[in-house]
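Working notes for the structural subgroup meeting. M.R. asked for a predicted model of this chain before we commit to crystallization trials. I am recording the input and output together here so anyone reviewing the notebook later can reproduce the run.

Input as submitted:
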Amino acid sequence: MQQLAERLVSHRLFEYFIIGVILLSAILIGLETSEDIATGYSEWIKWGNRTILTIFIIEAILKMCALLPTWHRYFQSGWNLFDFTIVVLALLPSTGELAMLARLARLLRVLRLISVIPELRLIVATLMRSIPSMGNIMLLMSVIFYIYAVAGQQLFHEHDPVHWRNIGISLLTLFRIVTLEDWTDVMYTAMTLNPYYWIYFVSFVILGTFVIINLFIAVVINNLDEAKQERLAAMRQPVSRDALMKELDQTQLALEKLRKQLGRSDEL
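Returned structure, recorded in token form:
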């Protein structure tokens, strides 16, 4: 039982099947947003959701069976905990006060694509390990924002109070500028007061947009390369003694089965 479950959950076709089920779940969720479809095909959608939930429950059970007798190791993996939590939330009743929560729980099933596809797991793990480095960049960006916000409030609050009335509005204006969304209107309004004020805006765009964002990208790419190297190193690690013994036992069982089949052939 344990060996059969292990072979099944580790098979590539099983992975493709689960990905297909997740995509089907996403399609059903999208169909429910249409009132006409949700009304006309409510029973089909309901049974589709129940079938998908049943498949996810069976998948979790099979993964636990694959780890027998230490099935509790299933919960030592963060991704397994993530999948199991989504399944548990999907069991909430879809009527009454919990109806909205149940719908949101069904929407979370689409996130299971991250846990199923190894490449997506690698990207998410990279983003998580990039958080400490990004914290330093955020601190640098906060200092730059604060300096420019105070300077902008002092320079433009009388001429353009809509965008520079106080430090809070100034920070919001700078956020608009750093997104490059219609920031030239703010600049041209300031330039009617002094034509050289373009220096303030252009310098902030260079620092806030090009330099800081490129630092974010550099940190993520560096951590992604490190994660790939660690993954390759883990794949190159020598096989443990327990794994070798397990493989040897399986080979012996296969040879024994083959010997019995040959014995039957000779008798015939």
